[in-house]
Recover the amino acids of this structure.
RNA sequence: GGCGGCGUGGCCGAGUGGUUCAGGCAGGGGCCUGCAAAGCCCUUCACCCGGGUUCGAUUCCCGGCGCCGCCUCCA
């Protein structure tokens, strides 16, 4: 096919450039193995309901994952669930129930929210509690190498043994130290030494595992090292998470791998915060909106659109107003899907760029999309292109250029789909799907009345439909119904 | 104190050394429509301040002001 864009459809040459937190530069994502991407994204600690920040990072990495697959790569996506942690234990204590119950409950809430957001389930979801023996082995190895030491209350990594500690913080250990505060009660040597293993006194009723250092539980920074290396192997391609994980969490993961002499993530990707009134949304600030709350109030796709509309590294303002904006924008996309249902659906079936042209997606549309996405995941640019296609499709149809309109509509379905956005009324969610028989009958009766120029009757029927929750749209292609 | 980032039109949010300065939402006008809805066309509104570099800066440099984040559990 002429104009077939070989570049974005090749599976062996990836042209994606991504910002790497370790260098501060946007640089090509250089894969360990051509055609395959291994990515690890730090998942939730399941001690409470997820908030909008969790929603953002999962959407960002879901989009990255989908795009990598779209351009022809095999993606292995691993994201953990931290199911043992001080916060979970604290919650269990408050509620007087087992920690495992707390973790199970909030993990269920998590997956329900993910399903609503249409975030695809990771290929692997390692749980910290299932990897404790491996973590113990890792701690032992670090101690044996002299990079970690045992103290009365636990085992700590000696950050002074990690030459480039501070890489992800973009400053050397010495300058970090200036602002460091030592947590009280911890028997560590250096303020930045961190717990690999927390000893649990045997008499206390707490969750613990046996170890050569006595009963205890793993430190948070250890699980991701063990699980990422265990599932993806050394030198895996990409490690991601929210900006706040950059330091100290990711720094400390890296430090362990460096101390062990094992190659770790080749590329570090961090997304920006969700903000409210210009301030970071976080549990500790108490200004968070829970993800389930948002999803109950708005079309879940609106949040995806809102997230896509800004660049992933920038802060994102989430308010009822911005969510409402996104819903209006979504309505514009859905309107196209209503006008060209088959074409948009056909486009959405295409899940590889390499198949898009054959499926009737204009090459220029595909190229523009990939050009934007390849430049550090420019989803705002990609989205702008999609909205442009929407306009062109309507234009072409209004001008009677049917084939051109259908091609553009297919492109919209395909590219929105590549971003994880399903379009059309069927995507609106429960209770807002297809018109029932009665509604269809009313619409037919109205068509008849209009045909006969009995406009009073037609308007009465339209009111009737409105009362049942349907808005009537007339078009050259005929009349149709839209949920209000 | 150290480090990083940001300040764009009514709102959200991209981007660029200069000519048509993305896109969405909202506003105004028009077309279409029996009337609407949807759509199309046109349109209002812009680059924090002060210097500098330049033929020319919103875009580069310096200074200022303001805001935010990390350095502590945090997506």
């Amino acid at each position: 096919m002429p104009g077939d864009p070989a570049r974005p459809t090749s599976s062996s040459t990836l042209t994606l450039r991504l910002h790497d937190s370790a260098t501060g530069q946007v640089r090509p994502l250089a894969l360990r193995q051509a055609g395959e991407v291994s990515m690890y994204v730090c998942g939730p600690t399941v001690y409470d309901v997820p908030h909008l920040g969790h929603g953002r990072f999962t959407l960002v990495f879901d989009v990255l994952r989908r795009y990598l697959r779209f351009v022809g790569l095999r993606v292995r996506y691993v994201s953990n669930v931290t199911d043992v942690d001080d916060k979970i234990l604290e919650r269990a204590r408050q509620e007087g129930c087992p920690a495992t119950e707390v973790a199970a409950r909030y993990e269920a809430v998590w997956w329900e929210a993910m399903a609503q957001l249409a975030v695809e389930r990771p290929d692997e979801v390692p749980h910290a509690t299932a990897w404790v023996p491996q973590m113990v082995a890792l701690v032992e190895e670090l101690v044996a190498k002299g990079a970690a030491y045992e103290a009365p209350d636990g085992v700590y990594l000696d950050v002074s043994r990690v030459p480039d500690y501070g890489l992800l913080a973009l400053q050397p250990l010495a300058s970090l130290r200036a602002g460091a505060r030592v947590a009280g009660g911890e028997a560590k040597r250096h303020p930045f030494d961190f717990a690999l293993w927390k000893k649990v006194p045997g008499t206390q009723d707490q969750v613990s595992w046996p170890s050569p250092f006595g009963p205890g539980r793993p430190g948070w920074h250890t699980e991701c090292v063990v699980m990422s290396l265990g599932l993806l192997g050394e030198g895996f391609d990409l490690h991601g998470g929210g900006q706040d994980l950059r330091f100290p969490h990711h720094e400390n993961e890296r430090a362990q791998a460096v101390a062990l002499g094992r190659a770790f993530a080749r590329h570090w990707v961090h997304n920006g915060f969700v903000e409210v009134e210009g301030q970071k949304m976080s549990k500790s600030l108490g200004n968070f909106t829970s993800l389930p709350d948002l999803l109950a109030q708005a079309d879940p796709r609106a949040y995806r659109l809102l997230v896509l509309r800004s660049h992933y590294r920038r802060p994102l303002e989430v308010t009822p107003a911005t969510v409402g904006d996104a819903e209006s924008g979504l309505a514009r996309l859905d309107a196209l899907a209503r006008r060209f249902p088959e074409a948009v659906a056909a486009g959405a079936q295409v899940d590889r760029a390499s198949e898009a042209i054959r499926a009737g997606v204009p090459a220029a549309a595909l190229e523009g999309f990939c050009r934007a996405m390849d430049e550090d995941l420019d989803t705002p640019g990609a989205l702008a292109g999609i909205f442009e296609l929407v306009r062109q499709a309507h234009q072409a149809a209004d001008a009677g250029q049917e084939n051109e309109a259908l091609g553009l509509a297919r492109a919209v379905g395909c590219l929105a789909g590549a971003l994880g956005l399903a379009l059309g009324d069927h995507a609106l969610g429960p209770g807002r799907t297809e018109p029932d028989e009665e509604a269809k009958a009313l619409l037919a009766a109205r068509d008849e009345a209009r045909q006969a120029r009995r406009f009073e009757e037609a308007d009465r029927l339209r009111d009737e439909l409105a009362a049942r929750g349907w808005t009537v749209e007339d078009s050259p292609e005929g009349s149709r119904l839209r949920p209000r």
